[in-house]
Amino acid sequence: MHNDVKEVLISEEEIAAKVLEIASAISEKYKGKPLLVIGVLKGANVFVADLIRKIDIPMTLDFMAISSYGASTVSSGAVRILKDLDEDIKGMHVVVVEDIIDTGLTLSYLTKNLKSRGALSIEICTLLDKPERRTAPIEVHYKGFDIPDEFVVGYGIDFAEKFRNLPYVGVLKPEAYA
Ligand code: IMP
Ligand code: MG
């Protein structure tokens, strides 16, 4: 598996330091407030698992699954809710946690959808951002790293469902896509 990686873009250590930084900012901001963290499946699973263990205020966790790329590396533009939240978000301060923002289509749809459900506030947290690729405007409140317009895998992020278990973020060798 590691043999398929051309380059490590962000190491485990760099990710861990950033997770702590973001978790501290969230803990500070939502002290004394009802906080709901929403992980966007499946890609944000690893990030959200690490992040919530560094948030040191009371909070609840829920998940949504949204359709994105399927087995291709090109966005289909189609956004579908595959799994909805288990709990009502009315009266909650929501932080949506994503693995990576590319065009922004997924999150722009999702935030509109969540706003209509009566949350007190909605903020966006993403591990990775490809700002050059943005077509839908979104405000990102907590960001791990800006990355160039390259297809990345690892730390929860897949290519055709594989490589989610890499502990770092990397770029694959061309032959790994074959
Ligand atoms: P957006 O709607 O174009 O912003 O796409 C966001 C989603 O596309 C992410 O949550 C990922 O699931 C997927 N995605 C975007 N870029 C990459 C990448 O470089 N590697 C793997 N998945 C990606
Ligand atoms: Mg995703």
Describe this structure in words.
The chain is α/β, with parallel strands linked by helices and 178 residues long. Helix content is 21%, strand content 29%. The protein has helices at 12-29, 45-52, 105-115; strands at 5-10, 35-41, 60-66, 81-83, 93-101, 121-129, 142-146, 152-153, 169-172. Strands 4-3-2-5-6-7 form a six-stranded mixed sheet, with helices on both faces. Strands 1-9-8 form a three-stranded antiparallel sheet, with helices on one face. Helix 2 (45-52) links the parallel strand 2 (35-41) and strand 3. Helix 1 crosses helix 2. The relative contact order is 0.22. The mean pLDDT is 93. Inosinic acid (IMP) is lined by residues 43, 68-69, 75, 98-106, 151-152, 157. Magnesium ion is lined by residues 40, 43, 68, 98-99.
Brief digest:
The chain is of the alpha/beta class and 178 residues long. It has 3 helices and 9 strands, in the order βαβαβββαββββ.
What are the defining features of this structure?
binds inosinic acid, globular, 6-stranded mixed beta sheet, 178 residues, single chain, alpha/beta, 29% strand, binds magnesium ion
